[in-house]
Amino acid sequence: MSKLNALHNDCYFDLRYNGVKFKNYVGVFQVDDLTIEILPKIDSQEKDKKLWHDVLISMLKVTKKLNVQKVGNANVSKQNLHLLDIYFDWFLDEVEKLIHLGLIKQYNRETGNVKALKGKLEFAGHLRKNLIHKERFYTTHQVYNKDHLIHQILGYALAIIENFSKGSSIYSRCKSVQLDFPEVKQVSIDHRTFSRLKLNRKTSAYKTALEIARFIILQYAPNIKHGQESMIALLFDMNSLWEEFILNRIKYSARKSEDHIEVYGQRSKRFWQNVTIRPDIVVRKNEKITIIDTKWKNIGSSKPSTQDLRQMFVYNEYWDSSESILLYPTPDQSNAPNFSSYKNIEHSCGIGKLNIINDGKLNLEVGNEIIDWIKDR
């Protein structure tokens, strides 16, 4: 765990004596057969583990980081099903669909000894390898088969799932998929490998499978080992997830609203030289602009930090906004923003507290509440 954290600039957690203090990342990571799930929480009630497990899955679904329909709601509702299992199930679904449709073949270059001269003769290799075997030719030639980069990526992801799902139902399903999957060469895969992929009309069906494979492979840490143990981590920055969720819900509510409301996310303006500033969400209703900055923490009765207030002041100035909102989650009833004006300045900043739980599940109508806050001003 220490090596994994160091590899990512110690952003996941702090290691303490006989303990771990997690930071603002949520998700799951597995070391050998030990699986640790980190859930988002804004209260201290231990009894709400399943609630926050479901909240995390729902947030990932809304922000398109997870397609729960591909896995099936019956599987997602199981309390003992980890986020890692959901991604594995989703990937296996996609690969099974590709096998059913028919896996594509591609031309690729192959270098080696053949019994007939074809392609380009590699003289140096031919002299080195075939000094005795005069009947062979060492050539580089094109072959048309299923052993190409796309299938090598999918095969690598299947091998990771096989390694991390032993002893579960996913393991037997993975082995079954591997039997129907063609044998491909084992290659080294990193983020540069995915940048070389160019999908076309023929390979467009592979898009979703490759996106999940990218997520699984790049989070796999085969170089971090203790003995024979390897590690995989699927972790999300909760601040970013909270921001994307709120942006998605406000956009959804704005589209249904009869008022003309425009919603933008992460719009940049130059601040100083090449430095830019970007508020999380900008809402425009007619000529009125409201800036929203999301913070995933239970602020309670505390005041926002001076740095946050200064940040909102700058946003108001640069976007000609009359008001801005610091938006926090709360385990209690939602509270509309309580605005306070900056001294001798026309614009103001409010603290909004939003309860995202309704009837024991994630409240998908929070966008309506925020739109109502803005319309009532």
Automatic annotation (TrEMBL):
InterPro entries (alphabetical): McrC, PDDEXK-like_dom_sf
Domain of life: Bacteria
One Pfam family it belongs to: McrBC
Name the record gives this protein: McrC family protein
